[in-house]
Every structure is written in C-alpha cells, then in structure tokens.
Design a protein that fits this description.
This protein is α+β, with helices and mostly antiparallel strands and about 475 residues long. Helix content is about 15%, strand content about 35%. The chain has eight helices and 23 strands.
Length: about 475
Amino acid sequence: MKYMSKLLVLLLALAMLAGCFAACESGGTSEDTTVEDTTAGDSQGSENKEFVDYASTVKFDPNSGRASATVTVKTFVDGDTTHFNINHPAFDGGLLKARYLGINTPESTGQIEPWGKKASSYTKETLSKATSIIVESDTDQWNPDSTGDRYLVWVWYKTADMADYRCLNLEILQEGLAVSSKSSDTAYADICVTILNQAVNHKLHVHSKEKDPDFYYGAAMPMTLKELKTNIESYKGKDVSFEGVVVRNSNQTAYVEEYDEETGLYFGIQVYYGFNLGFFGEEILTVGNRVLVVGSVQYYETGGTYQISDIKYHAMRPDDPENIQKISDGHEGAYPEVSAKDLLTGKVDIEVTSVDEEGNETVETKTFDRGFITMHGTASLKDLVITRIYTTQNEDSSNFGALSITCMAQDGTEIVLRTIVLKDADGKTITADAFPIGSVIDAKGVVDVFNGVYQLKVFSASDITFRQ
C-alpha cells in the first residue's frame, strides 16, 4: 500500500512538471501578433483603463528621408489595400497599388472574414473625407510587397478641420480592425506594439469574442439564379447556392449563366474566386461545366456591380456543403442575339417572389433593365459598324493593350465592345489596326457594365467576325 501511495505521488509530480513545461512552450507569440507590452505596468492589461489616442502622437515628417508623395484615391479595394493616382517618376503609369504597412485587416473581397467589411468601410469613409493624402515608404525607396504588384506604404491623410496629418495604418490598428503584420522592422514599430496591446486589452473588434453584425454566419440559401438576380440587394452579404453553366473564365473570375423557361431569358452573374481554390477547385470552374456555386453575395465597388465571392473548395472534403461542385460538362454559352438598343435601354417585366424574415412570401411584378438581367451572361450583336477605337496605354496595368471598340448599330445606337488583351496564334498582342474604322462586324461576349453603361466584353479575337 505504501508503495502504491509513493507511486501515485511520483506520477502526480511528473504530471505537474509536464504541465509546467507545456506552459513554458506555449508562452511565446509571433512578432506579428504581439499582445504584451513588456514596458507597461500591471494595470496595462486592464480593459477598463482609459483609451488613449496613441495614433495622434505620431507626426508625419517630410524630412525623414523616406520616399513619399501626394496622391489621390483611384479605387478602394479593402481595409489595407487602396489604389492611388500618383504623379511620380517611379510610377510611369500614374498608378500606385498600395498595401498598407504594418497591418493586416480581415479579408473582404475574394474571401470574406468577420470584420473585413467594417475595416474596408472604415478605410473608405476616412479617405473619402480627406482633403490631402500622402503615401510614405518605410525607406528612401518604393518597396514592392511579395506580389511584386503592390507597394508597401504608410498612408497619411488630413481633412479640412485637421492641422496635422494622421496615419491611417495606425488608426486601423488602434480601432481593432487589424492585426499587426511584420511591423517589428518598420519605422513605427514601437508605437504599433503599444497600439496593438491597447486594442487587444480593450477587446476591440477582431480582438473581441463578439460576432460581427455585418458577417453572415448562417448556411448558404439554395435558390435559382433568377431568384438571386431579381432579389440581389436583399441577399447582400449572405451566402447563397445556385446552379449555372460556366461560359467564360478570366482573371480569377468565372462568368455563369442559367436559362429560365418561365421568362425565356438567360440570367448571368460573375463569380470571383481569387486565389482561394487551388488546382482542383479551379478545374470545376472550367468553361462548359455546369456547376453548383456556393458563395457570398457582395457588391464589387470597382466594377459597380454585384458578384459572388468567398468561393471555397476543400479537396480533402469533396462532400463539404460549402464546396463548389461540378454537376456535368459539355455545355456551351447560349450567346442569344440581342439588339444594341435592347441591351442598353431595354426593359423586362418579371414576376418576383420575395420572402421576408418570418417566411412570408410576396409576389409582385418588377421591371428590370434587360442589360442587368443578362449582365455577366452571354449575348451576341450583329451588323455593327466600327466608328472609333481606344487602346489602354497604362503599361503598369494588366489591361495594357486592351481595346475599347465603339460601334454603331443599324438603328443608330452606339455601343462599346471592351476586349481583354487579345492575342494571335503566335501569342502576339492584336492591336487596333486589326479592326479598321468603317468595318462591319458581328460580335459575341459577356454583358458587362462601365460607368453605369452596359457594354459587351469580348474575350477572344475569334469572337469578332467581319461581314463580307
């Protein structure tokens, strides 16, 4: 019995010792998510401590020796990425794709994460009020990020009622709308740690256990593409699932359409999958496949239209209900013939069934733009006369060499065919010379919109044929 007692005591001691070692092993944190301020007193970690505007203590120094320039906003992307117009010798195309230094906000474009939309809105609302914006590198050079396409900068802004510039990067971190990202080697490393610790201690947004009110936590709602398209605003931010045929795939975006027998119309939508899917997921979105799309309804600010994003495919879990799925293959885009006038200004009346939060159905007839219903689905136009052509000249853009071909229809309606960068059989860029002014053509493509005006997006030179 004494032997057994001693054995139990020994085992207990060993268990306690193992626990101590485990605690020591797990005590460290990465430099990107530091939450301890080793210079602070015992009360530093209290969430009840007064909130300090540490961001206001950091001032922009034009004599720091770091590269900087005055810019204006071209496009808001998400919480930590903005495209700016810039007049600087280092940027021949006048475009700076900025990735904010020192922070990483939750995703809100190709992938949707809690607090991502709030971070994105915070950046947009803040810079929209700015009367002056300065971007500052962390060194005397402009430094690209890992993609090679964006540049790492601190973003400073000032409004009409502000005497000093404020650093938006630090403000976003201070609001708890980001975690620290590789900030330890930056010019503002120390203040980033202080600001992050405060946000963590006050349990702000991403550091809290609260649910993001703008994030949809429910299961995807099954529906037809017609139901989605005719009630699109009511599904914004929610997960949906529907079937359709992939008719085009370009630039991490699949274009999907579905025929509706009741109306005799093809409904279309674009599905932005970014770099989330991997090889097997992208194979599902091959042109000609009929697929089940599962994703989040989001408004695409840059394109001025709705799209489906946050697309997932878990290769190790093929039956996961969040997965996109291939249903069948061997299908083709319909490319129904439509007049330019009907595409630009035509209207269609559709009986729409909507369901409120209590499950009550309402049926009413609504009028939609023909272009909106077809948008991101296929269409073909005939007997167009080419009147002028514009070539995208921005060498820093992936669209360098893309064409905007303005045409006149037989009834006098003007419409634009917007191409991607077209290539010939040898891989050489096809220029405007291949489409002489005055030529009569037929064209097919995907309906798109630019500045609120519908147009036809053309993906291949073979989709434009000349009339004899």
